[in-house]
């Protein structure tokens, strides 16, 4: 299923593009860190991230073009779980998030060999909540008024997906993606 794209290492020459995507208002609006990230701040974060063995960041690429970032954090090999997040480039084609999520779940359960994958979504980011639910994620809790956004406290949805749940859903999701890509 190569046409869905791939997750690959992020090149040092792509850090500025990554920062620009992350700073795009459409992306920044749904993140915990909402200020514009400076080049120095981004470089320092990247240097710290590369020193950690409990984090992994990937570039999503499709047909030779980079379109987004996939992150795995708090990777716990003993308990076989971690958290993940993603964001697409502001000009990414429709369906990019779906393809990124498919690849991320495959990576989590096949390559990282996790039993559980978790994520958090700000309550007002309903498109991403719906996307995760479509992929089988279940709400495990709502952290009420957990995060301050523009002077108001907002809820955070905590979601989880188990390996067995993904194994059962994966063939149908692959078929849906392939059908969408043929249309």
The fraction of residues assigned to DSSP E strands is 25-35%
Largest beta-sheet details: 7 strands, mixed
How far is the N terminus from the C terminus?
16 Å
Q: Kindly state the mean pLDDT as a whole number?
A: 95
Q: Give the number of helices.
A: 6
Rg (C-alpha, Å): 16 Å
Order of helices and strands: EHHHEEEHEHEEH
**Strand segment tally:** 7
Low-confidence stretches: none
Biggest sheet: strand arrangement: 1-2-3-4-5-7-6
Estimated helix fraction: 25-40%
Shape call: globular
Helix/sheet category: alpha+beta
Question: Describe it for me?
Answer:
This protein is of the alpha+beta class and 183 residues long. It is built from six helices and seven strands; from the N terminus they run E-H-H-H-E-E-E-H-E-H-E-E-H. Strands 1-2-3-4-5-7-6 form a seven-stranded mixed β-sheet, sandwiched between helices. A hairpin with a 2-residue loop joins strand 6 and strand 7. Helix 4 packs antiparallel against helix 6. It is globular and about 40 Å long. It starts with 5 loop residues before the first strand and ends with a helix. 21% of the residues are buried. The model has no long low-confidence stretch (mean pLDDT 95).
């Amino acid at each position: 299923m190569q046409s869905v794209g791939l997750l690959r290492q992020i090149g040092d020459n792509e850090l500025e593009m990554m920062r620009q995507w992350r700073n795009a208002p459409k992306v920044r609006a749904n993140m915990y860190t909402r200020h514009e990230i400076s080049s120095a701040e981004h470089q320092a974060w990247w240097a710290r991230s590369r020193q950690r063995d409990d984090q992994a960041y990937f570039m999503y690429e499709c047909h030779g073009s980079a379109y987004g970032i996939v992150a795995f954090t708090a990777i716990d090999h003993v308990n076989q779980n971690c958290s993940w997040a993603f964001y697409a480039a502001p000009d990414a084609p429709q369906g990019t998030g779906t393809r990124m999520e498919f690849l991320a779940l495959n990576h989590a359960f096949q390559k990282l060999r996790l039993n559980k994958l978790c994520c958090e979504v700000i309550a007002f980011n309903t498109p991403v909540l719906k996307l995760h639910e479509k992929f089988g994620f279940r709400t495990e809790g709502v952290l009420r008024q957990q995060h301050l956004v523009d002077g108001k406290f907002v809820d955070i949805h905590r979601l989880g997906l188990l390996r067995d749940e993904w194994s059962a859903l994966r063939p149908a999701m692959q078929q849906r993606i392939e059908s969408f890509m043929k249309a």
